[in-house]
Request: fold
Amino acid sequence: MRIMHLNRAALMFYKFMIPVIEAQKKGGHYVCICTADEPEVEQLRNRGIDVFTHGLKRSLTPLNILKAILRTRRILVDQQIDVLICHSPFGAGVGRLAARLAKTRRVVYFAHGLPCAPAQCPLIWLLWFGIEKFLALFTDAFLVMNNYDENLAIKHLVKNQGRVFRISGVGVDLTKFNPTGTERDKRQICEELNTPPDRKMVLCTALLKPTKGIFLFLEAAEQICARRSDVCFLLAGSGPSMDKLMKIVQKNHLENRFKLLGWRNDIARLLRAADIFVLPSYYFEGLPVSILEAMACGKPVIATQHRGCEDAVVDKKTGFLVPVKQAAPLAERISILLDNPQLRSSMGQAGREHVEQHFELERCTRDIVNALEMASQ
Reply:
């Protein structure tokens, strides 16, 4: 078969999908990518993957979307694609409409989190649900990562529930994300950040936008820093909310207690250095890789009672689940773990075992490839 993966952004392919693409190629398929013209495109091509660009930009306009649909249709026809695998809401919208025009034989939506998610404004939810309901008419199969998406797809988006395939996320490389060298990495990170080595570290890694819960993380940090001096909060990531976060940190004189690290290429090292990992997200998550990476490094995780997060964290065993959009319960759970090293250790160990059993990279890759084979029939 001739297979094309399509997504709006190239970074997702480079970070998460190379093992799947390489496994499909080993299985005898021709596999290519259609994505935006971004720096990661050359890195993908250097790995021997054919990459085409659809021209879809971050600033979506009707004209831009139409051009992307027509350009993608031409690529599908020229490359004689048998199966189009769409990722992400915007990319999947463009891809499914283009595939309809190109009369592509099979279209699969690999949903890394359906855009109609709990905790959204009801009107926004209804808008996205209507869009997904319409696009489902041009979709032969769904791959989903969590209970919420699976139930939604089976009940409302497909006529044949056998065309919904549940997978365990994209997996984690356990050789890269592991607890080995924790003390060494903590010393190095403390020196780098000019932080006293006896301070406990609470880490969040996320895209810097409100729905990832980053302002809740900052609010919880403010509450904790007001009553104790033995903890430092780290936030790694880039995004549109960076300037606003910096202003709040400076206004509240938290520069030495709440550190904005920006984009980092050493997430495994940061996770090993941290004592606790936090992700208070209400974003349209699929199955947050950041949570799985933290558990693989033996860290207790505090996340929200929200789609994807509650599919990754085993409440009171590998960490805690707290209500969405509430800083006080988040601060309370962080404080419980700060005061109880034995609980941190036992939850971290349970998290590592949980990832080993369910989310190891090769196992997840194999499951994804098998699901895609069945979905493409």
Notes: Residues 341-358 form the longest helix (18 residues). DSSP finds 15 helices and 13 strands in the chain. The chain has two domains: 2-171+361-375, 182-358.
